[in-house]
Amino acid sequence: MLKISSLNVNGIRAAHRHGFTDWVSQNKPDIICLQELRALEHQVPDPIQNMDYHSVYHTAEKKGYSGVGILSREKPIQIQKGIGVDWIDNEGRILMSEFEDLIVFSVYAPSGTTGDERQDLKMEFLDHFLPFAQKYLSGNKPVVFCGDYNICHKPIDIHNPKRNKNTSGFLPEEREWVTQLLETGFEDAYRRLHEGEEDLYSWWSYRAASKERNKGWRIDYHMTCPTLLEAAEEAVIEREWDLSDHAPVTISYSI
């Protein structure tokens, strides 16, 4: 069994203060995909660096911003940072670790909540990401793109779909992009194991006691190839942990 976790840490140093290493030692994921490190590699706290994991990071040029990482028990046989688009790669948004039996990506899509300019860049990111991801579906190894996509796909994935229909993260063109991703052959593994189940969210605003009231959004995904979906046995959102404003999304695969 292979346990893969994905977590937007909203700052790796903050997550460390909130018990990140306790979560790791208790749950023992084999692979951990991290998003929004908001730190350079040398700023990752020593207790995290000293865990029994191989660590790979792709950090942003801008200090205290974005950045992704992958921690793994097994040493990767190959690493790829970025996708060859300068502004995306300078923001540290996509990282790949290849292992003997599978390929794992950590993905942090831009947020469009700060205005039209960032929303336009978010859509540009999605336009670049789709063909990039598609190439891996026809490869000879199973692949999973874990991460914070900053999009809720369906009304079931957001606590108030009517009020948020014009909000970045639930715009029709963003939701249609997720539909396109799934139509190319990817699987939303967490949802496929929880078909039709309501009130399942992975992010909650820090405002208005949103987490206590479970007024959340499901924006963190394991987008897998069909082979990995077949191997997915258990999928949980670990909302009992308060490591950041996101909860870890953890799926166990029988490979």
From TrEMBL:
Domain Endonuclease/exonuclease/phosphatase as annotated: residue spans: 6-246
Any one GO molecular function term: double-stranded DNA 3'-5' DNA exonuclease activity
Keywords: Hydrolase, Magnesium, Metal-binding
Record-linked PROSITE patterns: AP_NUCLEASE_F1_4 (PS51435)
The EC number(s) this enzyme carries: 3.1.11.2
Obligatory cofactor(s): Mg(2+)
InterPro entries on file: AP_endonuc_1, Endo/exonu/phosph_ase_sf, Endo/exonuclease/phosphatase
Family designation: Belongs to the DNA repair enzymes AP/ExoA family.
The protein's name: Exodeoxyribonuclease III
Source organism (scientific name): Fodinibius salicampi
Upper classification of the organism: Bacteria, Pseudomonadati, Balneolota, Balneolia, Balneolales
Gene name linked to the record: xth
